[in-house]
Amino acid sequence: MTEKRRYLVGCRSGAVVPREVETALESLAAAAGAKPLRALKGGQRVLEMTREEAEKLASRRPDLIVEEDRELELYHPMPGLPPAIPKGPAVTMRVKVTDEAGTPVAEATVIAAGKEVSYRGKTDAKGVAKVIVHERFLPYVIASPSQGFWSRLVPSVTVSAKEELTVTLKKLPVRGGFTWGHGALGVDRISKAFTGKGVKIAVIDSGIADHEDLTAGGGFNTLDGQDPAAWNVDEKGHGTHCAGIMAARADNRVGIRGVAPGAEVYSLKVFPSGRFSDLLEAVNWCIDNYIDVISMSLGSPWPSEQVALVLAEAHGRGITCVAAAGNDGGAVGYPAAFPEVIAVSAIGRIGTFPSDSAHALKISDYYGRDGRHFFASFSNWGPEIAVCAPGVAIPSTVPDGYAAWDGTSMACPFIAGVAALILEAYPEIRTGDVNQPLAVRDLIQRSAVDLGLPTGMQGAGMASAARALGAALLRRRAGSGPRMQARR
User: Fold this and answer.
1) Which domain holds residue 151?
2) Of 23, 183, 362, 380, which residue is most buried, by most CB within 10 angstroms?
């Protein structure tokens, strides 16, 4: 029996399906033998059918786009690990994880990395993880805490079923200020003048959980069959982490301060198990709700014609779209590779994390001319890269506290935050049409700092909020800034 798959069906004419086409689509789908799974607000349909049925539907109406509704990848905070595929005889090793005072650390992920595969376990209330491995010698073991500590890398581990491996974690320094990444972009130099006030940012991700340093203004859960109002549920912690980089509002001696803490942040939940159809719904929501900046720390190696159409529509409506390049060290993924999107790669800096942490695995052979900044070993690269931003050892908010993660996922919200600052600082560019995102991109790229890395890795260079907002800062000090214009 031919396998049935999910297909996303829309119209080549644009991001919204005309009513007459939508009506015809329903009868055509029935005639093709397709099973309807979902109707999107833009008129698109998600259908279950065989490849032959999909081809039959497409041949009947050339004005339709019939493509697989592929799963999206949430760019993971621990990239670059070998796949988890056990082999050889099993041995159960015990790993105890504690803090520097000897207190057990629960809910820490223990990753035992073999030569070609990896094995995982999680610590219990006593801080002990039981990890079943299939090798006698491991190149390294990583203890990755859920929150509150730096990760720890233990090299050259001999596996023993009798002896317990103890790993001690160092406390993560979160004192209510900027991280190294914010300082690298010069956010600290303009933070008293510009905070992103009056700008609306959408984080298309895994949700934004309630957090003492972070407040989302609303949102939408796109996942089919779930409560649309459950946008503040974040099972992965990923969306909360990205949102904190961008807009955390720490006003005490705990936590972090984001790039644009004065911006209005909205959560568009497309994970877990998000697909093209969920991303399509999310971007259409952003268009309908007059969002100024979209941050997307997700992607796929496969392009989607319908996602491309909706992003082009958003771009034409004045929305600046920013996306992570990807974490597999290959070509830039989608949607980052689309021309309307600002693609962001990841950079790290020596001295910003403990040398015995897992962040050290992200150091590549490519260093900038200062000998300190390096291209992250996991980061995707290519001619589509617009700029780079900090993406290694970035502390930020997670549902239960704070954690330091790596990824182009972390680099992306830095740039989205800078875009928000630009829109506040230069209200004259807020035209509500295609000229708005073009002006934002131009200023971000023109003000970037050349690190001396290949263009395919750094794009125009490291983004600099301080340089991008320099003229606006001088204008504000002189008291000659123009009044804010209505966006639409």
Assistant:
1) 91-169
2) 380
